[in-house]
């Protein structure tokens, strides 16, 4: 008969005297508790740092948003105020222009060519010298009231009909332009069919910047002057209506 090899018990098994296998109890290896706690601690720290960073980022973005919003709101407020102010100024200017109408008629002395023109009804007139006994004729115009006449006061219009020839008066202004530091300039213009010398810059013997025109009336010379650039538009409009008896 063939020899029967005894069956060897599997590894981890034992047999008793009767040949019955007995399972050996094997202990399960548990991971060290210290490593698990360390991992949890690291995870908590990482999450905490991420949370802090997120909160910080959120606060920074909120502050940036607040600053931008305040800046935009401020710009909007400024733009609105500027628009309102601009509209108010435009309405005020329109009202002021309407108040000037209807324009009034001015007429100078008949013996001096009866110089005439139209001026705003909101302007007052002061005749300082009527030339009743010869000499120069002088009249001053200004909105509401005429300021005390001097080289320092500003009036919308100064009118003088000088008892001098055009050539003499033009020569006086030429001397002023030839002075060192003078910024007075001159050009010859024709307005309403009248040939005039138009001067612009610092008015002689004053610190005022304005416009002057001179033109011939018979044997005399008319001098019309505005003391400020702010009246130039009215001044130019007024010149368009000038007439006189030659």
Task: Give the structure's gist in a few sentences.
This protein is of the alpha+beta class.
Write structural notes for this entry.
- By secondary structure, the protein is α+β, with helices and mostly antiparallel strands.
- The protein has two domains: 34-99; 104-239, Protein Transport Mog1p, Chain A.
- It has helices at residues 33-99, 166-177, 232-239; strands at 13-15, 21-23, 104-107, 116-119, 123-129, 137-143, 157-162, 185-191, 194-202, 209-217, 220-226.
- The strands form three sheets. A seven-stranded antiparallel β-sheet has the order 5-6-7-11-10-9-8, sandwiched between helices. It has a two-stranded antiparallel ribbon with strand order 1-2. Strands 3-4 form a two-stranded antiparallel ribbon.
- The longest helix is centred in the first third of the chain and has 67 residues, at 33-99.
- It is elongated and about 120 Å long.
């Amino acid at each position: 008969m063939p020899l029967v090899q005894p069956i060897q018990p599997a590894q981890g098994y034992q047999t008793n005297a009767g040949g019955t296998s007995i399972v050996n109890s094997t202990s399960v290896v548990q991971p060290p508790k210290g490593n698990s706690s360390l991992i949890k601690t690291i995870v908590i720290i990482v999450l905490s740092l991420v949370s802090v960073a997120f909160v910080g980022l959120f606060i920074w973005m909120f502050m940036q948003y607040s600053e931008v919003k305040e800046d935009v709101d401020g710009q909007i407020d400024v733009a609105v105020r500027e628009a309102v102010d601009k509209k108010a100024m435009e309405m005020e200017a329109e009202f002021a222009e309407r108040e000037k109408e209807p324009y009034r008629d001015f007429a100078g002395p008949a013996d001096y060519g009866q110089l005439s023109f139209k001026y705003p009804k909101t302007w007052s007139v002061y005749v300082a010298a009527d030339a009743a006994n010869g000499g120069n004729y002088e009249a001053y115009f200004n909105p509401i009231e005429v300021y005390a006449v001097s080289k320092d006061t500003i009036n919308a219009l100064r009118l003088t009909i000088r008892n001098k020839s055009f050539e003499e008066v033009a020569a006086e202004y030429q001397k002023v332009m030839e002075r060192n530091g003078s910024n007075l300039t001159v050009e010859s213009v024709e307005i309403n069919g009248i040939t005039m010398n138009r001067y612009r810059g610092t008015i002689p013997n004053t610190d005022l910047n304005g416009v002057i025109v001179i033109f011939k009336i018979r044997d005399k010379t008319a001098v019309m002057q505005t003391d400020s650039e702010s009246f130039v538009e009215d001044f130019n409009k007024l010149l368009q209506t000038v007439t006189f008896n030659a």
